[in-house]
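Data availability excerpt. The first of two example chains:
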Amino acid sequence: MAASFENVTDSSLCTTIANADGVRVSTIEHLMAALFGCGIDNALIEIDGPEIPIMDGSAAPFVFLIECAGVVDQNVVRDVIRVLHPVESRTGDAFARLSPADGFSVAFEIDYESPVIGHQECAMALHNGAFKSEICRARTFGFAHEVDALRARGLAQGGSLDNAVVVSGDAILNDGGLRYRDEFVRHKVLDSVGDLYLAGARLVGHFHGVRSGHALNHQLLRDFFADRTAWRRESSAETEEAEFGADWGDVRVPAAAIA
């Protein structure tokens, strides 16, 4: 099935896509973020289960494996999707917005009553290796008091301190603590990058999320593409090197895919 926002069927706790035959694959957002961060836009992914492995809760293991396989530039110029005017989706005090910009950049804000998290902000342009160096190692997170409720619903069965940051009261239960001082908001950036890559091509624009999650990210893509005046598909050859860097012009595949 195509990794497309049009195939998203559930976005309550993670991003799940399905095809017309009812085949579902869940938790695709970290892998999609890694593909974006490595410049991959032509890949066939085969799995033998209903969920992408959670690995350590971040995109770093996928980035590592892609780099181990290597990447090949194909002799095809990639398309990008340019944001032409702002589009915003809201629910309560949360919103997700796309607006015009050169290149691709992200800003995110979160607010939690937890003293460990509190208010955090993160903003950056994601090019020239910024995803790998600043975002990909940020892990998914949750609260200890939520674990029993999730497992009673048949969720988070494999969840552990090996694949998530777990907060209990004013403490982080993981040995070694956080990988980044603001790892929580950086993981929200990671999730958003993965969700937005379901647009079907790289976006040229700025994403701003405030308390947004998977559901609102996907609603934003639906609202964005429903407004035909808000976007334009164009050849990356016109602007790619100036906006993304010299290595972003051609379609890229993992080397193992054509070995």
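And the second chain:
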Amino acid sequence: MENMIINRIIALAIGYVCGIFLSGYVYSKSKHQDITKMGSGNAGTTNTFRIFGWKAGLITLIGDISKPIIAIFITWLIFHKSQPEAMALLKFYAGFGCILGHDFPFYMKNFKGGKGIACTGGLIIACCPIEVPVSLGVFVLTVAVTRYVSLGSILAVISFFLQTVVYGETGILNLPGKYKPEIYIVAGIIMVIAIVRHRENIKRLLNGNENKFSFKSQKDGQKEGK
């Protein structure tokens, strides 16, 4: 029991260390700018796209999706032989730690990072790929219909939690019964954090003044205005 507590902490720490590498922030610094002081101030994919264009947005997206996959792989390398029955749980903790690192990096002012949606996508890919079609479909369809990335993100992360519980209970995810409730709790916490991180977006959605997604970045707009 004591060993598993330590293993959880190690998996969480591995994830956190991977998560604090903010792709959007690093990209902006490479351009001698600071993404946290531009646009929405968020270091995630959407704001990076709006400020620097689609290539920067794509780089940020790939970087943020990759972080939990790397963290989960490292965790698997460390524990798959000694703790095979607990791997599903430890992988979730590694992904969760990555989201925490991304959302609350220790070196940023007020611990302000991103909102963890791309990182959650990476966790889904690594831990429960069967959930990808529905979560991605919910996101893409919502954004296509409403043009609200925030709404698509919120609904996608809710679908992740619901699928984890449904697929876990039906045996599709093949989760160990001993750790199944804890995995649901971790997935639920991830969902709640994502919703809380979008609280300002939710207020704007309710007030009808949330920013809509456009394939035209501010960079493109500035070029056209010249």
